[in-house]
Amino acid sequence: MKVETDLGAIERNLDRIQNSARKPLILMCKADAYGHGAAEVTRHIKAAYYGVATETEGIPIRDLGKQVLVTAPSLSLMPLSASHDMIPLVGSFEIARQAAGSGVRRCRIKVNSGMNRLGFTGEKECYRAALFLTRAGIAVEGADTHYKEDSDDNIRLQNAAFCKALSAIRAGLAAGGYEGGFTTSVTGTGALFAGEFDYLRVGLAAYGYHTGYATAGLALEPAMKVTSEVIKRKRIRAGESLGYASFGFVAPRAMWAYTVLGGYADGVSRSEVGRKVIAAGRRLSIAAVCMDTFEMISDSVDLPVGQRVIILSKGVDAAYVAQRRGTIPYEVLVGYNVPRAERIYAY
């Protein structure tokens, strides 16, 4: 199976978002750039900062000389933020104390404005955090928050909570004697209401998928294409089955069937039975999925062994696959990030 990443598409998506929002961007590259390959993406794509979830994800990006935000730092890995001069988003006093004890030199404060995942909640906590970090000698370079949904009412509500937290943080920094620069960021979901904030953090939209109506008018391009090949062709009769008996397919009539490399160990879910893939310019159906292969059927299309099959592309994208699976595009994209896939990068 081949997983191709169009780096040019990512660059064009970011240009469109930045031109629309008129703000510098933080490019989220966690989970290996949402399955697109973080090393190549960050090497070629320019952004103000690059966001990862964990310290170990951030090290290769930091080694390229990039500014790295660690959005979900942990106690056990905090020393890596210090040794590689990464910027953890500190969102609890436990993490703050570990950052101080590990020799972290700079950080940002994560504010919980309503998502209730990570971050300090309320003005009192935010003030105390800013004061503690400053007194510990850590430069608090900014603060960030995350939206739980993209409705206007929710974004306005969370922005109001974030702004109150920012006032408290600035007061805590002043009380601690901090005089360095300070910036703010929100996720791209709130782009239409982000005039008072400095940066937008962009995730899925960078890779070609709309995450809310803030990007609805932009011509985003899916950057990932997944293809494989037919390794066996056969003619099956009515009543013959394909795949494991308990999850298999029984032919209602005589038809062509093809075994294609790529199964549930490669990101092709068993829940995709019935969805379309593309071969020789035609849409054919997945009939059964095993660990390493899937079965593809057609009433009339006769294909040779070696025929390329398009599993994911602009025509059958992650939004379509996610709808078939009953999930979200994020889960589809990261599922193709498997060791045995051949990775190809185009610009």
Fold and architecture overview:
The longest helix has 25 residues, at 152-176. By secondary structure, this protein is α/β, with parallel strands linked by helices. The model has no long low-confidence stretch (mean pLDDT 95). The protein has an eight-stranded parallel beta barrel, surrounded by five helices. The chain has a six-stranded antiparallel beta barrel with strand order 10-13-16-15-14-17. α9 (318-325) crosses α10. The protein folds into two domains: 48-206, Alpha-Beta Barrel (TIM Barrel); 224-346, Lyase, Ornithine Decarboxylase, Chain A, domain 1 (Beta Barrel), CATH 2.40.37. 30% of the residues lie in helices and 27% in strands. The protein contains ten helices and 18 strands. β15 and β16 form a beta hairpin. The chain starts with a strand and ends with a strand.
